[in-house]
Amino acid sequence: MDTQILPVDGRSLELSKKIICEGGAVAFPTETVYGLGANALDTAAVENIFKIKGRPSDNPLIVHVHSGFDISALVDYVPDYAKRLAEKFLPGPLTMVYKSKGKVSAAVSCGLETLAVRVPSHDSAQKFLKYVGLPIAAPSANISKHVSPVTAEHVFADLNGRISVILDGGKCSGGIESTVLDCTGDIPVVLRSGLITRRMIAETVGDCGEYVMKEGEKARSPGMKYKHYSPDCDTLLFSFEEREEAVAKYRALNGQGNNAYILCDDETFRLIGVEKVLNLGESAEEIASNLYLKLREGEKIAQTIIAIAPREQSGIMAGVMNRLAKACKGQ
Ligand code: AMP
Ligand code: MG
């Protein structure tokens, strides 16, 4: 199968709709990362997404809808706090988990009774979702466990030959996946951190929990248990306090002919001043936006990426740290 990267226009939208209606998959940009979308009402189409990505069959998908879509057609009970959060943060990088009405294929939620729903704010995502007019099940458009894609070229690198169309919406501005929020209980609970932080949610509705998986417990958000976001090269992770150790490792590896690069934020870079650096930038938003871009750049040029965690680890940086730790987990 030939894979084309197409600008978002009348022709590519028409082609995308045809592919989706025939049970195929289309990659499209969102404000977080690129998604690989299929008709959420069509079980074979949803199962095909798992096949294309090599995704574990118990890792549920998020359903994407346009901003005019009435989600009460898909989910049963939307608590008052969820309505307030939707008003404030949607469309945007916040996925909300509700009790499912069972209207979409059971393959989307991998048999769970809940459904994760997201309304992306990216202009091209909205155009695609409106044009197709169906709920679209979409994980990130990468091979499972690899670094998530934030450009059409990243999607192409992973899925060339496996899908026919990648809609090109430029570089995703957000850079890390959406916050996943459980809205089935009395208060919202963050299942996966992202750009909409626990604090922002608590400030809006008064309270917000955070789910931490305990040893031996069945994951409430199954994706959390998997290794993820890993670049195709060796990786090491040091804390901010261990930065001198990281530099010593960097020098030792380069001295042995191993082409090692340091991945860190601008604050750390100014402290250590090494030559081969993948600089994530300064603000939390900038660091999140650059994380996958730099991991993908790093896997091409480096034999080893030595990551140094940023000093600050709350708010948006909690989401960055979670991805960085998973990216650098044992290969
Ligand atoms: P990805 O599509 O790779 O960004 O992953 C989506 C993530 O959303 C999954 O890994 C799950 O952790 C989470 N998710 C999707 N559906 C549900 C659900 N029904 N309940 C809880 N978490 C979900
Ligand atoms: Mg993913």
Quickly list its features.
four-stranded parallel sheet, 10 helices, binds magnesium ion, alpha/beta, binds adenosine monophosphate, 331 residues
Structure description:
There is one protein chain. The chain is α/β, with parallel strands linked by helices and 331 residues long. Helices cover 33% and strands 18% of the residues. It has ten helices and 15 strands. The strands form two sheets. Strands 1-8-2-3-7-4-6-5-9-10-11 form an eleven-stranded mixed sheet, with helices on both faces. Strand 10, helix 6 and strand 11 form a beta-alpha-beta unit. The radius of gyration is 20 Å and the shape is globular. The structure holds adenosine monophosphate and magnesium ion (MG). The site of magnesium ion (MG) has 3 residues, from loops.
Short structural summary:
The protein has 331 residues and is α/β, with parallel strands linked by helices. It has 10 helices and 15 strands. Helix 1 packs across helix 4 and helix 9 packs parallel to helix 10.
Let me know the average pLDDT. Answer: 95
Strand order of the largest sheet: 1-8-2-3-7-4-6-5-9-10-11
Major beta sheet, specifics? 11 strands, mixed
Provide the helix percentage: 25-40%
* Bulk shape: globular
Q: DSSP strand (E) fraction?
A: 15-25%
Q: Low-confidence parts lasting 5 or more residues at pLDDT below 50? A: none
Ligands bound to this protein structure? adenosine monophosphate, magnesium ion
Report the radius of gyration as a whole number of Å.
20 Å
DSSP summary: helix tally = 10
- Annotation, overall tally of beta strands: 15
Cα distance spanning the termini = 30 Å
